[in-house]
Structure formats: structure tokens, C-alpha cells
Design a protein that fits this description.
homodimer, 244 residues, alpha+beta, Jelly Rolls, Arc Repressor Mutant, subunit A, 4-stranded antiparallel β-sheet, 22% strand, globular
Chain lengths: 244, 244
DNA sequence: AGGAATGCTTGACTTAGATCAAGCTTTACT
DNA sequence: AGTAAAGCTTGATCTAAGTCAAGCATTCCT
């Protein structure tokens, strides 16, 4: 009813160097001139409404996206109507590398809540990667981190029992939030139980039971999507399968 | 005893344009001059003995490797001595992208059998990516394919029952062999049951039972590691969770 | 060639987690 | 505001797959 605010795909004027995420999503060591080039190539603060798709499988690869606020999930859908969630992308994360193989996206990317992204279109991407070495390296690093995240998830799905999967996930989110300057002790999960269960390869009921268990054990406190970590040590200790 | 052949890390003189894998591992559309540059940057036919490591976690990122013959498995090891196999790399595949995140390998890469690889060291890699656009694009495509493979495995581990996992795996190997000009009907699996079971997230015993089941159903014929696919259609039909 | 170790298969039994079912709470819609 | 629809939790039951155990086949080593 209120809303004089235009809220769909409207560019705003937040400059990259004022953006709190610049240190996360931009490669370091650009010259002033290079930074200007990068900035001018980026479309800023595009809004994706909750449940809308940032892109869908088979869409042409138009851009790489940086999540500024909100969150995105990527997933594969199967012919029989099931889905497998591949990743959750939070502020500071880059999305869109799945289309590198053949210039078409190979999965869906959907907003879990109203989300703002910055967008670097692929033409500019190619230009910048061609002419700026640190840009190329920064992107390689990002792709490598993406591969690393997926390896971690494979380990989770392949080796861990359900309780350990959840414990590892929560520890990961906590540490991630902390490293971004948010609270690692208390945070909201942006995704519904259904999505988290799918991501962690278990039934919703099992996930719910594991939340309850961790709460009964006094390790966390759960209030719907608000999680408080009471004992980070014990939570982390449940992750037996940490990488050597 | 015999062996006048030196068999360790000895360069041989197979030129890239004579290599049957060139069409697989090289980006298309290089000029003659660019191809020469690439060729001279590549160390050819380095032998990795069975069970030796091509690299280990935390090793510095020295090169990208192309499997010429033999096979490589990559894996994560956990503190409690478990491992999760992340991928099997067969002739024509590229290995080593796991070190993109921080110039150190994030997993182990071990030869399943005596294996020959070609090696493109990272200095040359950076040079070539900087100066040759099609080289850059080819590498991006390869990284994208790597991400796609991992997505597929996540779907397998997250959604499929054990029989379907094996069926999907065998169909994949079969199609891959076919597309490489080998037989899609009959082939040897390069990995022991133990490794395949780990990769597919199940116990060895379960894997063995699933092989037996598929054989009893007349879908495949199993003779240790030699697999013959009797009914590709029925095998593929067991993969309910194909991507939309 | 012989023995040890590794790899694979099959059977019997157990269990972690799925499924089914119900109720309760929060959010969304008109 | 009031109702419908999602979302979440807990309990009871069932089952796919894990574990334990044994035996045979193959490869490796001296």
C-alpha cells in the first residue's frame, strides 16, 4: 500500500568502493583505473523478489552475480519432480559459475528472500579477464572456492551421519558469519527446513529431530529459524569428519 | 629385471598434434603459432606409477594435468582416517583445478594404475590464459565441466537409492567411453569395488549386491572389473532422477 | 611355487533414518 | 479479521542399507 519505492530491477547508485562487500567480491590489487573500469561494468543492486529466479537451467550465461543482501539457492531438478539443492549463497558470495561449461546455466538459482545482487555481464567479464591479470586471478580463486565448497558437501553427504551433517553445517554458517563481521553466536537461517533437509540429504523430519536433539543437549537453542549456538566447541566436536 | 625402459617421470617425444587426446584436452581454434606455444609449454607423457600420488593436499599448485592413459582418483581424507572420493579421471580428463582457491591443492590425486599425464605448469598456464582468449575460454569450459560433474554427483548422493546410483554411474561411463571412440558396451572399470562404493556413498557389500542384482536381472554381465552392458535401455531406465 | 595379503561376494542380523500420521504454529491470502 | 495453506515438530512403524562374519578368488611378494 505504501511504497513509493520502485522495487523491481531498478538500479541504485551505491558505488563499489562504498559497498561493504567490495573486499569480498572484488579481486585485490586493482589500480584506480582498473577499479573504475570494473565499477562501470557492474550493474548494481538489482532486486530479485523472494521465490523469483535469478536464472534457470538452460538460460544463456549473461552474467556473474554477487549477492549483496538476501540469499540465493541453486538446485537441480529431475524429471520425476525431485530437486537437489546444490548450494546456498549469502551476502558476499558469487553465483553463476555453473554456466562455464557451455555458456548455458546448468542449474536453477532462486531467491530465498527478497535479494539484491550486483551483476557483471559476461561480455565485460571476458574483457576484464583478458586485460587485467588480477581480475583473472581473483575469478580463478572464486571458482576454486566454489569447487572447494562442493567437495566439502560431497564429504558431508558421503561420510557423515545426519547429526554430524547438521552440526557441520551450523558450524560452517557460524564461522562464515563471524568472518563477515556478523554474529557467529546467533543468526537467522534464511532457508526453510525443507530446503535445508534436502541440501543435507535427509528427510525434514530427521532434520527437525536433529535440531531438537542438539537443543536437548544444550548445544544450541532453536527458535524456528533463529539459531543460538550455546557451545561452539561441542558443536564443532560433533564434526568428526573434519579434513585432515 | 628386464627393463631397459626408464619408467619414472621421463619425458617422451609424442607431439600434441599427434596425440589422440589433443581434440579433448586442447581448446579449439588456436592459430598454428599459438598451438606451438602451447605445445612447447607442455611436459609430455609423465609416468605416475600405480598408487603414487600426482599431488597431495597442501602441495603447491604447480600444474594442470591431462590424463593420457591410465586413471586418477581424487579424494579428501578426514582426521579420523576416512576418505571421500571426489572423482575418477580417465584419459582425456583434466585434473588439478582444486588448487585454484589458494594455489595449494585441496585434495589428493592418486593413480589407480600406471598412468601417463601431460603437464601444463601454472606459469605457462597464466601466460597463455593472459594472452590467448581461446585458451582462456577452453579452460573456463573445462572448469565448468568439472563443476557440472560435481553437481551430478551431489544429485546422485542426495537423491538416489543405491541401485540407481550404480546404474547411473555405469551409464555415464558407458556413454563417456562411446564418445571417446571406445566401446560403450564392454569395458574395464579401473577402480576397485572399495573405491567405487566410497565414491557412490555406499558399503562395498551393498555395491557388490547391486552388481549381482543387475546381473541377475540380465541388464549387465559382470566379470570382476570387466563389465558388459547387455541392455543399455533398461540400465538407463533405472536412472529415474535424470535432470529435467 | 607357495603363502600372505587384498579384493570380492554372499548370508544373517541390526539399525539409522525414511515414511506415515497427526497436531500445532506461523504466514499468506481475500 | 478470518480462513487456508505452509512450515515445523513429535510419535509410531517400517525398510533400505549398514555391519558382522565367513569363504573363495586373485594378486602380490619372496
Amino acid at each position: 500500500m505504501s511504497s513509493s519505492r520502485i522495487s523491481t530491477n531498478k538500479k541504485t547508485t551505491v558505488a563499489c568502493n562504498n559497498c561493504s562487500l567490495s573486499e569480498l567480491c572484488l579481486p585485490r590489487g586493482l589500480t584506480k583505473e582498473e577499479l573504475t573500469r570494473l565499477e562501470s561494468a557492474i550493474d548494481k543492486a538489482i532486486k530479485i523478489n523472494k521465490k523469483d529466479y535469478l536464472y534457470r537451467r538452460d538460460d544463456p550465461h549473461q552474467a556473474i552475480y554477487a549477492v549483496k543482501s538476501g540469499s540465493i539457492k541453486t538446485s537441480l531438478s529431475t524429471l520425476d519432480g525431485e530437486e537437489q539443492i546444490l548450494g546456498f549463497y549469502l551476502p558476499g558470495d558469487l553465483v553463476g559459475f555453473d554456466a562455464f561449461a557451455n555458456s548455458k546455466h546448468s542449474c536453477d538459482a532462486q531467491a530465498l528472500e527478497d535479494t539484491f545482487v550486483c551483476e557483471l555481464n559476461m561480455n565485460s567479464f571476458h574483457d576484464l579477464c583478458g586485460s587485467i591479470a588480477s581480475m583473472r586471478n581473483g575469478m580463478m580463486r572464486q571458482v576454486g572456492m566454489e569447487i572447494g565448497r562442493e567437495h566439502q558437501l560431497l564429504l558431508t553427504l558421503g561420510q557423515m551421519r545426519t547429526e554430524e551433517r547438521l552440526a557441520t553445517f551450523l558450524t560452517g554458517i557460524s564461522e562464515r558469519n563471524q568472518s563477515r563481521g556478523f554474529s557467529g553466536r546467533e543468526f537467522y537461517l534464511p532457508m526453510p527446513r525443507h530446503d535445508l533437509a534436502n541440501y543435507l540429504g535427509m528427510a525434514v523430519e530427521t532434520l527437525s529431530r536433529m535440531f531438537s536433539r542438539l537443543q536437548e543437549d544444550g548445544i544450541i537453542s532453536v527458535n524456528h529459524r533463529l539459531i543460538e549456538i550455546l557451545s561452539p566447541e561441542r558443536l564443532k566436536g560433533l564434526g568428526h569428519h573434519q579434513c585432515r
